[in-house]
Amino acid sequence: MTAPAETADAITFDRVEKRFPGARGPARPVVLDFNLVCAAGETTALVGPSGCGKTTLLNLAAGLLTPDKGTITIGPRAINGPGPDRGVVFQHYALFPWLSVRRNCEFGLAMVRTERRRRRELVERYLAMVGLAPFAEALPKALSGGMKQRCALARALVVGPRALLLDEPFGALDAITRRHLQRELMAILARERKTVLLITHDLDEAILLAHRVLVLHGPPVRVARDIAIPYPFPRNPELRDTPAFAATRAELWRELDHAAPS
Amino acid sequence: MNLSAEPDTPPLPAAEPRLAAGGRYVAISLLSVLTGLLLWEAVAAGLRSSLLPTPAGVVHAALGMGVGVIARNFAASLRRIAIGYAGGVLLAIPVGLLVGWYRGARLALDPWIQFLRNVPPLALIPFVIVLFGIGELPKYLVIGLAAFLPVTVALIQGVIDADHVLIDAARVLGANQFDVFLRVVIPGAMPVFFVGLRIALGNCWGTLVAAELIASRSGLGYMISQGELYFNIAEIFIGIVLIGLAGLAMDRLFYLFQQRLTAWQERR
Ligand SMILES: Nc1ncnc2c1ncn2[C@@H]1O[C@H](COP(=O)(O)OP(=O)(O)OP(=O)(O)O)[C@@H](O)[C@H]1O
Ligand SMILES: [Mg+2]
To answer: What is the ipTM of this complex?
Structure first.
C-alpha cells in the first residue's frame, strides 16, 4: 500500500544548552550540556517527572526552540527551525478549529505546494488509515478526543516526515481509545520506519512502543536511566502481562520514584 | 484499511431541531412585539395626550407626510451609514491587523487609538462641522470614525490573542510567517472581529442621528429635529421607529453572517 519507507535519520543532541529567563534572577538552565542520540528508525520513549524538561527537548528537536549552545542534528543536517522532515503531535491536539478534518490534514501539503490532486489522494489514504474517512468534512468541534488525536496524527504523517515527535500523544485519552491508537501507531511505524521521540507518562505505553526507554531527571534534564526494550516488532499488546514486561515496568518505577519533583 | 475499532458513524444532521428552535424564537419575538404595540395603543388611547400618539396615529401621520418624503430621509441616512461604515471598516482591517501583528506599530499607534477610543465621535461633530461645513463629508468622517475604532480595537486584540499552540502547529507543518498570519492569526481573529463589527454598527447609528440632529437638511435625525421644531410628535416617532428597525435589521443580518463564518467555534 505505501511506498517503501524513506531511510530514517538519527536525531542527535550535541552539548545542548537551553535556559529560560526566571521570574527574577539569572536564567535557569533547563537543558545543560545534554547529549543524546536517537537511533535512526527507532522509537525512543522519554519518561520523567513533570517539569523535568521533556517538552523542552522535544521543542528543541522540532525547531520551535533554539538552543543557547550546542547543536541538534537530524541525519547530516543541523536543525535551525521547524521543517516538514519532522512531524509533531502536540499534547492537546492543536487542530485548527476552523478547518475540517480534511483541510487540517491538507495544511502541511499546502505549505509545501503539493499539487491538488496528489494532496487529496494522500489525505484520503491517511484518513482511511486512522479511520477518520467518514469524518473528512467534519469540524474538530464535532470530534471526540480520540478522533481529534487521530486527526492530529494523520495531519503529521501525511507530509511524510522522516521523524515523529510525539508529546504525550495519547495522554488525554481513556484507556480503551489509547490502546486502539497505540496499535494504530505501531502498525503505521511497521509500514513506514521513522525515527520517533515519544514523551509519555504511561510506562506500559513506553515499553510497548519503544526500542529504548529513557528515564529523565531534572531540571536541568539528564538521562538517569537508559533501558533497551528487546522485544521484536510488531509487538503484541498481551506482552504487558508477561513477567519480563512487569520487571521492566518495576525497574522504571524505581527510577522514577527516586526523582520525585523537588 | 481501517485500523480503528471505534464504531464511527457520520454525525447526524442537526438541522431539524435548530429550525424548530428558530421557529419558536420568531413566534415568541412576534408575539412580544404585538403585545408591546397593543399596550402602547391602549396607554396612548387612555391618556389622550398630544404628547403620546397611538401607533395608528403614527402610521396616519406618516401617510400624511407622504411616503416619498420619509423614504428620501431614510435613504439619506442609509447612504451615510453605508459609506461611513464601509470606509471605517475597510480602514480598520489593515490597521487592526498590522498594529496587532507588529509590536513596533502597536507601541507607536496604541496611545493614539486608546485616546481616540475615549473620545465619543459625537464630541468631534462640532469640530468637523467647523472644518467642513454641514455637507456630507463631515458626516462620513464621524461615522467612519465611529466604525473604525471598535473594529480596530477588536482586531488588535484578536491578533494579539492568537493561539500560540496553533501557531506552533502551523510552523511545524512548514508555514512561514506570512502563512501563519494568513491561515492562523486571521481566522482566529474572526469571532472578535465580528463582535467589533456589530458594536461599530450600533455606534454608527448613534453618531449618524446626532450629526443629523445638529447639522443636516435630510435624514431621519433631521426628520426628528423637524418634528421637534413644529411640535409634530408623530414625526418624531416615525424617525425613532425607522432608526430602530433599520438598526435591528442590519444587526440581524450581521448575526447571520457571523453564525456562518464562525460556525467552527465551540458554542454552548
Ligand atoms: N517558556 C518557558 N519560560 C520559562 N520557563 C519554562 C518555559 N518552558 C518551560 N519552562 C521550565 O522548564 C522546565 C521544563 O519544562 P518542560 O515543559 O520541558 O517540562 P516537561 O518535562 O515537559 O513537564 P510535563 O511532564 O509536566 O509536561 C519547567 O521547570 C518549566 O518551568
Ligand atoms: Mg511537557
So the answer is: 0.88
